[in-house]
Amino acid sequence: MFSTVDISASGLTAQRMRMDLIADNIANVNTTRTDEGVPYRRKLAIFRERNDNFSNVMAGKMSNNNGQNGVEVAGIREDTSPFKTVYRPNHPDANQDGYVEMPNINITSEMVDMIDASRSYEANVTALNTTKRMALKALEIGRG
């Protein structure tokens, strides 16, 4: 029962991190110069299964437990797609031809990713609430 809660909680945490990254991407859609001197690069969350480590799986099997299940954020990766160029000759970051490199962020795809992350978050909340209701029903059966 608690492993189900743990799996849902890990999904909630991972999707929240994904939504935070998407919000950062949207907030920096016009950032033409970072501390490194280049435009902001889109950031992506990389997910992986939590029990991919052999020793974790083996320890879980030895204790008749499935080990830690769920998902975790394995890392944050920068999108290496090329920057967009926009003609703005009066912009301080314009090159000699008047073009400015803009972040490699597409608002439409960010919004689609945000909807996807939001739906995944909602699905994990639903699974968590269902598990809670099942536990309460089991307690009611035990009392009767």
Q: Could you list some keywords that capture this structure?
A:
144 residues, alpha+beta, two-stranded antiparallel ribbon, 3 helices
Brief rundown of the structure:
By secondary structure, the protein is an alpha+beta fold. It has three helices and four strands; from the N terminus they run αβαβββα.
Q: Can you walk through the features of this model?
A:
- With 144 residues, the protein is an alpha+beta fold.
- It is 50% helix and 16% strand.
- Strands 1-2 form a two-stranded antiparallel ribbon. It has a two-stranded antiparallel ribbon with strand order 3-4.
- Helix 1 runs antiparallel to helix 3.
- The longest helix is centred in the last third of the chain and has 37 residues, at 107-143.
- The protein is elongated, with a radius of gyration of 22 Å.
- The mean pLDDT is 89.
